[in-house]
Amino acid sequence: MLCKIPAAWLIEHSNANKLSVGGACVYEKHALIIINKSNANWFDIFQLARDIKEKVEVFYNISLENEVRFITTKGEIDLNNENVQF
């Protein structure tokens, strides 16, 4: 049997919504929103998104799909690529 599970539920119930990197954190009112709480740079946001995805995958063995695309002057950055050059 297949069922749909909301990503926000997975993030909250794996406690990934408690993660932060630099000034970036998960918005307390909605687990699908990353906010810049105090001078976060783009790497903080990128790394937080990667950490959230990893925590959900370890906790539930479910891989979240990226909706946001990270595009720099060098092209698109894949959140799944472990060898990203910054």
UniProtKB/TrEMBL annotation:
Alphabetical list of InterPro entries matching this protein: MurB, MurB_C, MurB_C_sf
GO cellular component, as recorded:
cytosol
Q: Where is the UDP-N-acetylenolpyruvoylglucosamine reductase C-terminal domain?
A: 6-71
Cofactors required:
FAD
- Biological process, per Gene Ontology: cell wall organization
Instruction: Cite the Pfam families for this sequence.
Output: MurB_C
This protein's source sits in the domain of life called Bacteria
Q: Name one GO molecular function term.
A: UDP-N-acetylmuramate dehydrogenase activity
What is the protein's given name?
A: UDP-N-acetylenolpyruvoylglucosamine reductase
Q: What are the top taxonomic ranks of the organism?
A: Bacteria, Pseudomonadati, Pseudomonadota, Gammaproteobacteria, Vibrionales
